[in-house]
Amino acid sequence: MKEILSGNEAIARGAYEAGVKVACAYPGTPSTEILENTTRYQEIDSSWATNEKVALEVGIGASFVGARSLVTMKHVGVNVAADPLFTLSYTGVNGGLLLICADDPELHSSQNEQDSRNYAKFAKIPMLEPADSQECLEFTKLAYEISERHDTPVMLRTTTRISHSKSVVTLGERVATVAEPKLARNAAKFVMLPGNARGRHYVVEDRITTLSKEGCSMPINRMELRDKKIGVITAGISYQHVREALPEASVLKLGMVHPLPFDLIREFASKVDKLYVVEELDAFIEDQVKAIGIPVTGKEIISLCGELTPGRVRKAFGLPENAQGTAEKLPGRPPNMCPGCPHRGVFYTLKQLNAYVSGDIGCYTLGFMPPLSAMDTCVCMGASIGMATGAAKVLSPEERKKVVAVIGDSTFLHTGVNGLMDMVYNKGAATVIILDNRITAMTGRQENPGSGHTLMNEPTNAIDFPMLCKAIGVKNIRTINPLDLDECRKVISEEMERPETSVIITDKPCVLIKKEGVFTPGKPLAVVEDSCTGCRACLKIGCPAIEWVPSSGKKGKAKIDPLLCNGCDVCRQLCKFSAIQEAK
Amino acid sequence: MSDKITNILLVGVGGQGILLAAEILSETFMLAGFDVKKSEIHGMSQRGGSVVSHVRYGKEVFSPMVPEGEGDILFGFELMESYRYLPLLKPGGTVIVNDLCIAPPAVLLGQEPYPEGLELKIQELCPDCLLVDGQNLAIQAGNARAANTVLLGAVSKRLDIEEKFWLEAIEKMVPKKALAVNLKAFALGRSLG
Question: Does the structural domain A342-507 have CATH classification 3.40.50.970?
């Protein structure tokens, strides 16, 4: 049967067909939809973990007792999971274990564009790289065979254009021959004390040598010989752009990018006049080809930054570009917090209080955007609290009061909670605001341990944030309604004055939660035209439902779009002239 | 089947139903027997950001992205976004655009004006341009949110694909309770093409 699937959907299908029993992940664009799609198969136990390290540990546990397991994450998630990953390379597996890492060249929704192929080399494990959805499905199945045959975890790397592009896929059946999991004790293999690990290091090195040789005859590494003047070594989405831009060129398409099949590369190089490597981000293949003494052109013509497109490949090879520019500069259209978003009032207040906001990763990072402009730092998930601790350690008492860490519920549980433990235990002094909107909103509303529902949609125990903070040792814990500006201002300014750790928890759900009874919109508001003086106070919160109409009245007037307004009431509180009221 | 690839770009603002329209297009082409690839970036898009989706079909499609300057049809859900992505269209390409302005943040705040006369500018650059009053036609069909299907109907007239494949794709992709309205919206759009 044929279906049009995204790369992520195809990986989920591949995992099903491969007989996977456990799938675990922390959501991260562009990887998120893989786990959302494994839930379609009852045979797979799918769950969101609190972070990528935990997700991998769940996968490892299932593998060690014999089940095939799938763990997915975005590229920066691999940084979090790196600790167990590097030792997993030494233990190897029992049931096959596949780690999907989804890279984001061009930083469509990420804080850096690191190239995860380096992780495969660093951790000394094989990495496959599919070039379309069909390969996503097939490579996923192949990964489990490689994993079990070579006693190794396998990484499969996608990029945004593979994860989120759709193409036609032929589906297969689930394998029936996978062994039932059962407890299997093998301490010499699975307990990585130095004495055991020393011996395993030799196994790891041998495995890479063997795989490099085996790679030369793997069908997923294939030579496509056409015109011999140009030969291009490429993989993943870059292969598609090369075929598009240089249809006559000979290509060595690599399906396994680590370890590289060096003998096959030598053979290909000998068949073509001039050799190129076309790859996104790092000179990963290029450097290794050069290291075995084969001259090759790569990053001289292709940028180390950003994703490739057919046009960028054409340009690199000196071919004419077809795009015709329009010279005019248009207003940009960046993303914005939703109308009625519970974060807006908090950021407005922080701006008013001139707080130094140590920020974190999530929708609320958009608090950085004008007109709120209320975020001063953002590095990685969970870093806000630790960074606030560090800043408060060195500032004068007067400046220290300004330091406020802002973190979402999911991010707090991901790695923020460690930072809070450190802040309290080491007598740090800053205000921490947990923006609890009951969901992992930025990646598309995934459940987390604060939501009370699992990925499989079963009700479960929800974390009690005030109790958790109390257990950690926080003495000052307050809960506020973030849509009440007076309350926000009063509570946040009081806590900022305190010379010790305090935690404020906001208590309003994300407006995008569709589950019954969680978010209920208020009545839409409207501007009473005669009362609007054109003072622009309501514009300071940057709500997408409020528009400035310059041509209305002497100074212009504000207008509220009744279709967009969620009736959160924040703008009404800003209007000194009572010009914003419930729409009639 | 010829080797020619047809390149379609769908552009607009997050939340306008662009991704669903792109799904229906892709499904239609697959049902009609073509190789299809579709590409877009989502993640931040539902928060009012600029969205562009690429759909390509033909005998064999490689890149999921329309090569710059090779778009055959630009299918726009909003005027300024349509204008922004015109450089992706080939000279002499077709534009089918919803006659709708959605103000971006800087315009909402009164810091920058929404560019004027975009309909004329688009028509000057692309003589083969159809302006569609998607919103009103959608209301006529029974739901203001069905503007994407109205536009899809208009686009369908420009492509040599049998109507039955379009209808089959819509029935497969649109939720049951919204199906009748969407079929009506599609027919209204198709009568314009």
Answer: yes
